[in-house]
Design goal:
single chain; mainly alpha; rod-shaped
């Protein structure tokens, strides 16, 4: 069985599509990792802001008691 030019083109196109698919998957994965990292940074900032708010509230209550 001999492969004709049309079959060879189809095989080549499939290989190219697979390569593009792999590339897109890796790009998506890196974007997901970047977003996850950004989310963790934001969550950390919110958590530290909450701690600061709690501390300020605590200090305010101490001053209220003294007056």
């Amino acid at each position: 069985m001999k492969a004709n030019a049309q079959d060879i083109n189809k095989i080549t196109n499939l290989r190219e599509l697979r390569m593009k698919r792999m590339l897109l998957r890796s790009q998506i994965k890196s974007k997901e990792d970047e977003l996850k990292h950004n989310y963790q940074l934001i969550a950390g900032k919110i958590k530290s802001a909450g701690k600061i708010f709690s501390y300020v509230k605590f200090v305010k209550n101490i001053f209220k008691r003294k007056t």
